[in-house]
Every structure is written in C-alpha cells, then in structure tokens.
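Study this chain:
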Amino acid sequence: MSLTQKALHAFKWSVLGEVASRAIGPLVFLVMARLLVPADFGVVAAATVIISFSQVFSDAGLAKALIQRQDRTADSANVVFWINLGIGVLVVAILQLAAPLIASFFHDQRIAPVVRVLSLQILLAAFSSVHTALLQKGLSFKQLFWVRLVTTGAPGLASIPLAMNGVGYWALVAGGLFGQVVQSIVLWNRSPWRPHWGLDRMLAKELVAFGKWAMLSGLLGWFYGWMDAIVVGHYLGPHDMGLYRTGNTFVTMIFGIIFSPLLPVLYSLFSRVQEDLPRIKNVALTVMHASALLSLPIGFGIFLVKDELALVIFGDNWVGVGLVIGFLAITHSVGWLVGSSGEVFRAVGKPYLETLVMVSTIALYFIGYIIAIQHGLLAFLAARLLLVCISILPHMVLLNKTIGLTFRGFISVARVPLLAVLTGYGILAGGWVIIGEVKYGDYLILVFFALSYAVAVMLFDRRFIGRIIALRKVS
C-alpha cells in the first residue's frame, strides 16, 4: 500500500479501537457512577493525579523518541525498555514514602493507601510501553485494536462486583490495577519484540536528547490536564473534585470517540513525511476544519441539555455535575481546534515547540484558576473556558513559524463551523418557547439544533464537505 493508504488503513483501525474502548469504558463508568458517590471518585482522582504525574517521568518521553527515530529501531527499543523500567522502580519507591504527604495536601488520609497501591501501575506501564510504541510506529493499529478491545472491559470485571459489595472507592482502585495487568499481558502476546540485556550509551543519549523535550511537554501537559482538578480538590474538597473530575471524564469520553484515534495516526504519518512541510500544512488545515465542524456543535449541543443529561446518566446523587458537563463540553470543543498541533511539532523534530506553547500560558492558567476558585465552581468553569480560548494564540504563532500555517488560514477553517453553530442557536431561540413546552421538549431542542446546524453547514461549507466525501470514496 502507498503511505496514504497505510495511513487511512491505520486510521480506520485506530477509530475502531477507540470506538470499542469508548463503547465499553463508558458502560463501566456509568455503572460505577450509579454504585458510588462523588467523594469515592474524588479520593481515587486525587491519587490518580500523582500516579499520572509520576508516569510522565517513568516514560521520560522515550516512547515518542522511539516512534520518531527511523533507524536502529531494535537497539532503540531495548534502550527505551531498560531506562523506563529503571525509572519506574525509582518512582514507585518514592511514592511509597510520599503517600502520607500527598494525603495531607488533599485533606483526606484515605488517599495515602490508594496512592501506594496504584503506584504499581507505573511498573506495569513501563513493562509494556515499548510494545505499544513499536506497534504505533509500524502503523499496526489493527493489532492495537485487539489489545484495546480485550483490555477495555477488564477493569469492569473487577470493579463492578466489588462496588456492588460495598467496598467503595477500592472498587475503582482494583479495576484500574487489574486493567493494567491485562493490558501488559496482551501487549507482550501481540508484539514479537523482546528486550535483551545491555544498553548502548551513545544511543541512549540521542534518545534522551529528543525525549527530554517530549517529557517536558508531557509534564506540562500533566499540569494542564490535572492542575484544574488539583485546585478544585485542594480548595473545595473530595466531593467537588469528584463532581468536577467525573464530569470532565464524561465529556472527554464523548470527544475522545471522535478525535483521539486521529492523533497517533497523524503523528506516525507526519514522522514519515517530516521533510514535506507543505504536505503537513495541508493535512493540518484539513484536520482543523473537520475538527471544527464536529467539535463545536457537539460542545454547544451538550450544553443545551446538560441538566437533563446529568440526571439521566448519573442520577440524584450527582447534583451539580450537569453544570460541569455543560461548560466543559464547550471548553473541549474549542480546545480540539488545535488538538493536533503537538503531533506536528514532534513529527518535524521540534518537540520543544509544544513545550514553549505550554510554558507561555501555564502561569496564566494557574493564576486564573486560583483567582476563579475563590468565587466557586461556576466561576472556575467559566475561567477555564476563557483561558482555553486565549491559549489558541501561541499555538497558531508557532504553527506559522513551523509549517507556514497562518492565523488567517485557521480563521478560514473555523469561521464557517462557528457561524453554523450561531445560526443554529439563533433559529433555536425563535422556537425555544414553543418547543420547551411540549412533551420531551428538552430533547426536541437538541434535535432542532442539530438539524439547523446541518442545514447551515451544507449552505456555507458545501465545497469542503464535497472534498471529504470524495476523499472517502478514493480510500
């Protein structure tokens, strides 16, 4: 197959893997939300903050370096395996000692034993990270599909029975650990690569030189991904942290079904054509355009029915989660407009650019979070949406310098989807009173908005839709 055909084939299996995991995972998640209370999710979320932080260091960005490197693959994989495993052992030892301090920060001593148990996930992840990277590098997303299919349901096999027997947050802990064990076993079974004793020091220096930037980006990404939850947990407690993190997880699952499969395929594809910048630019613009067409109506549509959606899915114990879901849906929809920029920077051998983007805004995020949380959860949610909108600007500046993607080009692909969303809201406002009074009016509002948006897109963006349909027929 040609490179384009391989990429489309890989994307198909990546989508199938994401859909499979997102179909099974939410079922487990929703069952657990019905069986547990927000505080249970808050305790585990507080521990997971630290585990995810530690995993940034245990990988040291070397998996990305392995995918990007186009020579000496076997030797590079061996270097990455032993470095990751060694760092993983060190990190687990540190977490065992630091667990009481972590619990004190979140004002809940239940968190300490959870941190100690979940730290074992770091070793398991290090044990199989090379196998995942090699499958991605070879665009073997069909193999990864079967890995994800088998391992996605594993946490539920452990967590749901335990939750039904009243063990509370330990059910979530057991599910996460069991899922990681199953994933490691399946990856070793599906990938033929095996490590051997020995370490090429010169090669290790080269990989670390690239990986340090990916690691720093991962560290900053952790701050962006968890800083909000940390602030909520520290100032408002485990209950509100559970509401916030669970609502965020729910929204992330919705957007992840559509967008997450694209990122590993784009990174592998861009890495292979890293010298052809015009080609990367055209693909990036197409991805941004398609992302805008999908993400914006999803975000604004969820906001329309946030309270009804929360009541149906989470039940009466989760009062307040609807507000979180609504605001975060719009926030995610905006953020995904530049969601592939990091893959571009890493693929062209400039992973430090993503780091620069994050460094340029991280202080603004932290200050905004601290100020907003003093006024409650609603102010915090509004502040996060505003900060995400502002953070698009540095992404565009560096994309322009790297591949020549101008801000005007970005506006041109985002303008029509945003106009269509506003048109849908405008039409909806005219019939809101009538629709809202009829039976199932809340759900008819969402349908009416979707139809209005679809009509607007076909009127304003017919040419791009035709290009996408033609591309699909060719593939």
About this structure: The chain has a mean pLDDT of 79. The longest helix spans residues 201-236. The two ends are 11 Å apart (CA to CA). Residues 66 and 73 are 7 Å apart (CA to CA).
